[in-house]
Specification:
Blueprint (H helix, E strand, L loop, with lengths): L1 H9 L4 E3 L8 H11 L7 E3 L4 H9 L5 E5 L2 H13 L4 E5 L4 E5 L5 H12 L10 E7 H16 L19 H17 L2 E4 L14 E4 L16 E7 L2 H9 L3 E2 L1 E5 L3 H7 L7 E4 L14 E2 L2 E2 L7 H4 L11
Parallel strand pairs: 1-2, 3-4, 5-6, 5-11, 6-9, 8-9, 11-12
Antiparallel strand pairs: 4-14, 7-8, 10-13
Helix pairs in contact: 5-6
Length: 320
């Protein structure tokens, strides 16, 4: 949300934030802090509610621009509503089924650290998190063994406890969705390397999960989980790897891991994603634009690219 109103403020606009109905309090606190910092009344506003509230905001005559982050179906609905409301401008930052590919030369320990960074930071509840992991067939067993051992050491618990290393899912519908996907993965014949089950006790916790897909059609290689689920598929040659990268309707982010910078620079332009990392994943630099290709969205945030989305270009031609 800070990305949104930060862009609005930087371009001289006021904003109304409609948070997710699952997280109504955080932005109210941010608005309180903004007021304490001296922001004038009416510049940053928070309006809580469900989807009907969001729809009314989009359709309001006073709305000149809509910026949305969320799922693809909801993003499409937001875009249609905005177009129907006198062509209101909109930016969509939507879902991802982000690919992570390891070339044959990668160091196994660095690969495991990369998988942890890409797939399990904040329990995978980051739109740019890696979910599709492709490892050269000759290296997959070694890397999966080390990964399983690393995941086994994580302390799962209350995120307010400094000793906890792995927290809960955001809400019950999301928890139920992941359990359903785990069941489907078993039905499809995926190999469960680690996890794929809930954690006993209060809260919506699932174990960090690693699976090996039976083939490229497996649901967990194609449906966004937005959770701590890393699904692996082995590849045999690098052309196959690039095809696997792009065999998805999403295009938010991807990462390539290798010691061969020449190959990385040759392959990056062929990967269909708005952000491509080399030997890192998930971490962002606000100086660099962020946004997706294909069904992962329209427009960009960060960098200077957002300026075009929060302003109207005006041409002035004068005879004097």
């Amino acid at each position: 949300a800070v990305w949104k109103f930060g862009s609005a403020l930087a371009t001289g606009c006021t904003s109304i934030i409609k948070p997710s109905e699952f997280t109504p309090l955080t932005l109210l606190r941010v608005a309180e802090l903004a007021r304490e910092a001296g922001l004038p009344d009416g510049v940053l506003n928070v309006l809580n509610g469900g989807g009907d509230v969001g729809r009314q905001l989009i359709e309001h005559d006073g709305t000149a621009k809509v910026s949305f982050t969320g799922s693809v179906p909801t993003g499409i609905a937001v875009g249609r509503t905005a177009l129907g409301a006198k062509l209101t401008r909109f930016t969509l930052e939507l879902g991802g089924k982000n690919s992570v590919g390891f070339l044959k030369d990668v160091d196994a320990d660095k690969a495991v650290a990369g998988i942890m960074e890409a797939g399990f930071l904040h329990q995978g509840q980051i739109c740019a998190a890696g979910e599709r992991f492709f490892v050269h067939r000759s290296r997959q067993d070694e890397i999966l063994e080390k990964l399983s051992a690393t995941l086994s050491t994580l302390r799962i618990g209350d995120p307010l406890d400094d000793a906890s290393q792995f927290g809960p899912l955001s809400n019950k519908p999301h928890f139920d969705k992941l359990l359903s996907l785990f069941s489907q993965a078993r039905t499809e014949g995926c190999t469960i390397v680690h996890g794929a089950k809930p954690v006993d006790g209060p809260g919506y916790f699932v174990e960090p999960t690693v699976l090996v897909a039976k083939d490229a059609k497996a649901a967990l290689l194609n449906e966004e989980t937005f959770g701590p689920v890393a699904t692996f598929l082995a590849y045999d040659d690098e052309e196959e790897l690039l095809n696997l990268f792009n065999d998805t309707p999403y295009g938010l982010s991807a990462s390539l891991w290798t010691n061969d910078l020449g190959k990385a620079l040759n392959y990056v332009p062929r990967i269909q994603a708005g952000t491509v990392w080399v030997n890192m994943h998930t971490l962002l630099d606000p100086a660099v634009p962020f946004g997706g290709a294909k069904q992962s969205g329209l427009g960009r945030e960060f960098g200077s690219a957002f300026i075009d989305d929060y302003t109207e270009l005006k041409s002035v031609i004068i005879r004097h």
